[in-house]
Design brief:
By secondary structure, this protein is mainly β. Helices cover about 5% and strands about 50% of the residues. It is built from one helix and eleven strands; from the N terminus they run βββαββββββββ. The mean pLDDT is about 95.
């Protein structure tokens, strides 16, 4: 069983929206905060968003996505979502879902899902 399965990326025009999904194992989902990171070859890894491991828990959004992205979780589905609105070309990258400890990814690191935003 793959610990994390990411989906939802795609190719869009600037101003459009995408929703990323990440299905986690029950154990990971209930014991860890979860988040989305963006990393491309040769570039620094950025924590885009994260959410605590209980309903109503705190969330983190990187400054450049505040007001445009929303992170949420569905405990019944062991799934977190990243709703990405008003996408910009600078949002382009590979988005990875991960368990999060102290703002850093821990555990399984999958292939991610590609988001490409055209200007």
């Amino acid at each position: 069983q793959v610990p994390l399965i990411e989906s939802g990326g795609g190719l869009v025009q600037a101003g459009e929206s995408l929703r990323l999904s990440c299905v986690a194992s029950r154990d990971t989902f209930t014991t860890h905060a979860m988040g989305w990171f963006r990393q491309d070859p040769g570039k620094e890894r950025i924590r885009v968003a994260s959410i605590a491991n209980y309903n109503g828990g705190g969330t983190y959004l990187e400054d450049s996505v505040k007001g445009r992205f929303t992170i949420s979780r569905d405990a019944a589905k062991n799934t977190i979502y990243l709703q990405m609105n008003n996408l910009k070309p600078e949002d382009t990258g590979v988005y990875h879902c991960s368990a999060v400890v102290a703002g850093l990814p821990v555990g399984f690191w999958g292939q991610g899902t590609q988001v490409t935003v055209l200007s």
